[in-house]
Amino acid sequence: MSTLPLDKPAGVLVKTTCVDYPGLLAGSFFLKGCNLRCPYCYNVGLVLGKDDGTQPLNTVQELFDHLEKRQGILKGLTISGGEPLINPYTPLIIRKARELGYQIKLDTNGTLPDELEAFLDNPELRPDFIAMDIKTTPSRYAQIICPAFSNFYGNKEHFEHVVSRTAKLVASYPADKREWRTVLVPPLVQKEDIDAMAAVLPKDASWQFAQFMNKNCIDPSYNEIYPYTDQEASDLIEYAKKLIPGANLR
User: Fold this and answer.
1) What confidence tens digit (pLDDT) does each residue in 72-110 have?
2) Are the C-beta atoms of residues 108 and 85 closer than 8 Å to each other?
3) In contact, 102 and 77? CB cutoff 8 Å
4) What confidence tens digit (pLDDT) does each residue in 135-155 have?
5) How far is CA 132 from the centre of its chain?
6) pTM of the predicted model over 0.90
7) I want to staple 52 with a disulfide (CB 3.0 to 4.6 A). Which of 45, 63, 183, 225 is the partner?
8) Cβ(124)–Cβ(98) below 8 Å
9) Helix 230-243 × helix 191-198 angle, to 10°
Protein backbone atom coordinates (compact mmCIF):
# COMPACT_ATOMS: atom_id res chain seq x y z
CA MET A 1 0.00 0.00 0.00
CA SER A 2 1.16 3.52 -0.76
CA THR A 3 2.10 5.77 2.12
CA LEU A 4 1.49 8.88 0.02
CA PRO A 5 -1.34 10.98 1.48
CA LEU A 6 -4.37 11.10 -0.78
CA ASP A 7 -5.91 14.12 0.94
CA LYS A 8 -3.19 16.72 0.19
CA PRO A 9 -3.45 19.22 -2.70
CA ALA A 10 -1.61 17.53 -5.55
CA GLY A 11 -2.73 18.98 -8.86
CA VAL A 12 -5.51 20.39 -11.01
CA LEU A 13 -8.35 18.10 -12.09
CA VAL A 14 -10.06 18.69 -15.41
CA LYS A 15 -13.14 16.53 -15.12
CA THR A 16 -13.93 16.10 -18.81
CA THR A 17 -11.92 16.93 -21.92
CA CYS A 18 -12.26 16.19 -25.61
CA VAL A 19 -8.83 17.59 -26.52
CA ASP A 20 -6.26 16.24 -24.04
CA TYR A 21 -6.46 12.60 -25.17
CA PRO A 22 -6.74 12.21 -28.97
CA GLY A 23 -9.76 10.14 -29.89
CA LEU A 24 -11.05 9.59 -26.35
CA LEU A 25 -13.35 11.37 -23.94
CA ALA A 26 -11.12 11.73 -20.92
CA GLY A 27 -10.28 13.40 -17.67
CA SER A 28 -6.96 15.14 -17.01
CA PHE A 29 -4.86 15.62 -13.91
CA PHE A 30 -2.11 18.24 -13.95
CA LEU A 31 0.40 17.42 -11.22
CA LYS A 32 2.59 19.87 -9.30
CA GLY A 33 6.32 20.20 -9.82
CA CYS A 34 8.61 20.57 -12.83
CA ASN A 35 12.33 20.34 -13.56
CA LEU A 36 12.14 23.11 -16.17
CA ARG A 37 11.25 26.80 -16.17
CA CYS A 38 9.87 27.57 -19.61
CA PRO A 39 9.64 31.37 -19.61
CA TYR A 40 6.29 31.35 -21.42
CA CYS A 41 4.62 28.82 -19.07
CA TYR A 42 1.37 30.06 -17.52
CA ASN A 43 0.94 27.18 -15.04
CA VAL A 44 3.04 29.05 -12.50
CA GLY A 45 1.51 27.46 -9.40
CA LEU A 46 1.92 23.95 -10.76
CA VAL A 47 5.50 24.44 -11.93
CA LEU A 48 6.60 26.02 -8.67
CA GLY A 49 4.77 23.31 -6.74
CA LYS A 50 2.54 25.58 -4.68
CA ASP A 51 -0.99 26.87 -4.62
CA ASP A 52 -0.74 30.46 -5.85
CA GLY A 53 -4.49 30.98 -5.82
CA THR A 54 -4.85 31.05 -9.61
CA GLN A 55 -5.85 27.39 -9.89
CA PRO A 56 -7.49 25.65 -6.93
CA LEU A 57 -5.65 22.38 -6.37
CA ASN A 58 -7.35 19.01 -6.05
CA THR A 59 -6.32 15.97 -4.06
CA VAL A 60 -5.55 12.55 -5.51
CA GLN A 61 -8.54 11.22 -3.59
CA GLU A 62 -10.77 13.70 -5.44
CA LEU A 63 -9.31 12.41 -8.71
CA PHE A 64 -9.98 8.79 -7.71
CA ASP A 65 -13.54 9.61 -6.62
CA HIS A 66 -14.15 11.28 -9.98
CA LEU A 67 -12.72 8.36 -11.96
CA GLU A 68 -14.94 5.93 -10.05
CA LYS A 69 -18.01 8.11 -10.60
CA ARG A 70 -17.36 8.49 -14.34
CA GLN A 71 -16.35 4.87 -14.92
CA GLY A 72 -17.82 3.68 -18.22
CA ILE A 73 -18.38 7.24 -19.46
CA LEU A 74 -14.84 8.56 -19.60
CA LYS A 75 -12.45 6.25 -21.43
CA GLY A 76 -9.08 7.86 -20.78
CA LEU A 77 -7.00 9.74 -18.24
CA THR A 78 -4.29 12.22 -19.22
CA ILE A 79 -1.58 12.71 -16.61
CA SER A 80 0.22 15.99 -17.18
CA GLY A 81 1.92 18.73 -15.21
CA GLY A 82 4.21 20.22 -14.34
CA GLU A 83 6.19 17.11 -15.15
CA PRO A 84 4.56 13.83 -14.09
CA LEU A 85 7.74 11.78 -14.45
CA ILE A 86 9.20 13.44 -11.34
CA ASN A 87 6.01 13.31 -9.29
CA PRO A 88 5.70 10.45 -6.76
CA TYR A 89 1.93 10.25 -7.26
CA THR A 90 2.18 9.30 -10.94
CA PRO A 91 2.68 5.53 -10.49
CA LEU A 92 -0.12 5.42 -7.93
CA ILE A 93 -2.49 7.26 -10.27
CA ILE A 94 -1.64 5.05 -13.25
CA ARG A 95 -2.25 1.86 -11.30
CA LYS A 96 -5.57 3.06 -9.88
CA ALA A 97 -6.86 4.42 -13.20
CA ARG A 98 -5.89 1.25 -15.03
CA GLU A 99 -7.60 -0.84 -12.35
CA LEU A 100 -10.76 1.13 -13.15
CA GLY A 101 -10.40 0.41 -16.86
CA TYR A 102 -9.00 3.71 -18.13
CA GLN A 103 -6.55 4.20 -20.98
CA ILE A 104 -3.53 6.23 -19.80
CA LYS A 105 -1.93 9.13 -21.65
CA LEU A 106 1.28 10.59 -20.24
CA ASP A 107 2.48 14.10 -21.10
CA THR A 108 6.20 14.75 -20.65
CA ASN A 109 8.53 17.66 -21.32
CA GLY A 110 11.04 15.43 -23.09
CA THR A 111 14.08 15.93 -20.85
CA LEU A 112 13.88 12.83 -18.65
CA PRO A 113 14.62 9.77 -20.79
CA ASP A 114 15.81 7.60 -17.87
CA GLU A 115 12.59 8.17 -15.96
CA LEU A 116 10.47 7.62 -19.08
CA GLU A 117 12.29 4.40 -19.93
CA ALA A 118 11.63 3.07 -16.43
CA PHE A 119 7.89 3.61 -16.99
CA LEU A 120 8.01 1.99 -20.42
CA ASP A 121 9.82 -1.05 -19.06
CA ASN A 122 7.21 -1.61 -16.34
CA PRO A 123 3.99 -3.21 -17.70
CA GLU A 124 1.99 -1.73 -14.82
CA LEU A 125 3.16 1.82 -15.58
CA ARG A 126 3.62 1.82 -19.35
CA PRO A 127 1.21 4.43 -20.73
CA ASP A 128 -1.08 3.71 -23.66
CA PHE A 129 -0.31 7.06 -25.31
CA ILE A 130 2.63 9.49 -24.93
CA ALA A 131 2.81 13.19 -25.77
CA MET A 132 6.23 14.84 -25.70
CA ASP A 133 6.87 18.56 -25.74
CA ILE A 134 9.57 19.86 -28.04
CA LYS A 135 10.03 23.50 -27.22
CA THR A 136 12.79 24.88 -29.43
CA THR A 137 16.18 23.86 -30.83
CA PRO A 138 17.37 21.29 -28.23
CA SER A 139 20.65 23.11 -27.54
CA ARG A 140 18.70 26.26 -26.65
CA TYR A 141 17.11 24.51 -23.66
CA ALA A 142 20.39 24.95 -21.80
CA GLN A 143 19.84 28.61 -20.96
CA ILE A 144 16.30 29.51 -22.02
CA ILE A 145 14.32 26.53 -20.70
CA CYS A 146 16.57 25.14 -17.96
CA PRO A 147 16.41 26.90 -14.56
CA ALA A 148 19.60 28.64 -13.46
CA PHE A 149 19.76 26.51 -10.28
CA SER A 150 19.94 23.27 -12.27
CA ASN A 151 23.18 21.32 -12.58
CA PHE A 152 22.50 21.21 -16.33
CA TYR A 153 22.21 24.97 -16.84
CA GLY A 154 24.31 25.96 -19.83
CA ASN A 155 25.00 22.34 -20.84
CA LYS A 156 23.94 22.27 -24.49
CA GLU A 157 25.22 18.74 -25.08
CA HIS A 158 23.10 17.40 -22.22
CA PHE A 159 19.88 18.76 -23.68
CA GLU A 160 20.73 17.70 -27.22
CA HIS A 161 21.23 14.18 -25.84
CA VAL A 162 18.16 13.91 -23.58
CA VAL A 163 15.70 15.47 -26.04
CA SER A 164 16.92 13.20 -28.84
CA ARG A 165 16.85 10.11 -26.64
CA THR A 166 13.38 10.85 -25.29
CA ALA A 167 12.11 11.42 -28.84
CA LYS A 168 13.46 7.99 -29.83
CA LEU A 169 11.67 6.36 -26.88
CA VAL A 170 8.40 8.03 -27.84
CA ALA A 171 8.95 7.06 -31.47
CA SER A 172 9.00 3.39 -30.41
CA TYR A 173 5.22 3.65 -29.93
CA PRO A 174 2.76 3.05 -32.81
CA ALA A 175 2.22 6.25 -34.82
CA ASP A 176 -1.37 6.64 -33.58
CA LYS A 177 -0.31 6.37 -29.92
CA ARG A 178 2.18 9.25 -29.78
CA GLU A 179 2.54 12.92 -30.59
CA TRP A 180 4.89 15.85 -30.20
CA ARG A 181 3.77 19.34 -29.16
CA THR A 182 5.26 22.79 -29.71
CA VAL A 183 4.04 26.21 -28.57
CA LEU A 184 4.65 28.90 -31.18
CA VAL A 185 6.60 31.31 -28.97
CA PRO A 186 8.15 33.85 -31.38
CA PRO A 187 11.63 34.05 -29.77
CA LEU A 188 11.84 30.24 -29.51
CA VAL A 189 10.17 28.91 -32.65
CA GLN A 190 11.43 30.29 -35.95
CA LYS A 191 12.28 28.48 -39.17
CA GLU A 192 15.76 27.49 -38.04
CA ASP A 193 14.30 26.08 -34.79
CA ILE A 194 11.72 24.09 -36.74
CA ASP A 195 14.58 22.61 -38.79
CA ALA A 196 16.41 21.57 -35.60
CA MET A 197 13.30 20.15 -33.91
CA ALA A 198 12.21 18.22 -36.99
CA ALA A 199 15.63 16.58 -37.12
CA VAL A 200 14.92 14.61 -33.92
CA LEU A 201 11.38 13.55 -34.88
CA PRO A 202 10.34 10.54 -36.95
CA LYS A 203 8.99 11.47 -40.38
CA ASP A 204 5.58 10.04 -39.47
CA ALA A 205 5.28 12.15 -36.31
CA SER A 206 2.04 13.83 -35.33
CA TRP A 207 3.46 17.30 -34.57
CA GLN A 208 0.87 19.51 -32.94
CA PHE A 209 1.50 23.25 -32.69
CA ALA A 210 -0.36 25.68 -30.42
CA GLN A 211 -0.44 29.46 -30.36
CA PHE A 212 1.46 31.25 -27.58
CA MET A 213 -0.60 33.13 -24.96
CA ASN A 214 1.15 36.21 -23.61
CA LYS A 215 -0.39 36.31 -20.15
CA ASN A 216 0.57 35.01 -16.69
CA CYS A 217 3.99 33.92 -17.98
CA ILE A 218 6.59 32.79 -15.45
CA ASP A 219 8.97 35.30 -17.02
CA PRO A 220 6.96 38.55 -16.96
CA SER A 221 8.88 39.89 -19.97
CA TYR A 222 7.12 37.25 -22.09
CA ASN A 223 3.80 38.93 -21.33
CA GLU A 224 5.05 41.75 -23.59
CA ILE A 225 5.75 39.46 -26.55
CA TYR A 226 3.04 39.44 -29.19
CA PRO A 227 1.96 36.02 -30.50
CA TYR A 228 2.41 35.25 -34.16
CA THR A 229 -0.40 36.48 -36.37
CA ASP A 230 -2.62 33.80 -37.86
CA GLN A 231 -0.81 34.20 -41.19
CA GLU A 232 2.63 33.98 -39.59
CA ALA A 233 1.61 30.87 -37.67
CA SER A 234 0.15 29.32 -40.82
CA ASP A 235 3.37 30.01 -42.74
CA LEU A 236 5.44 28.29 -40.04
CA ILE A 237 3.14 25.26 -40.01
CA GLU A 238 3.37 24.97 -43.77
CA TYR A 239 7.16 25.09 -43.46
CA ALA A 240 7.06 22.38 -40.79
CA LYS A 241 4.82 20.23 -43.02
CA LYS A 242 7.58 20.10 -45.63
CA LEU A 243 9.76 18.37 -43.03
CA ILE A 244 7.12 16.48 -41.02
CA PRO A 245 3.88 16.01 -43.02
CA GLY A 246 1.90 15.42 -39.80
CA ALA A 247 2.48 18.99 -38.54
CA ASN A 248 -0.74 20.82 -37.65
CA LEU A 249 -1.99 23.82 -35.69
CA ARG A 250 -4.21 22.51 -32.91
Assistant:
1) 999 999 999 999 999 999 999 999 999 999 999 999 999
2) yes
3) yes
4) 999 999 999 999 999 999 999
5) 6
6) yes
7) 45
8) yes
9) 30
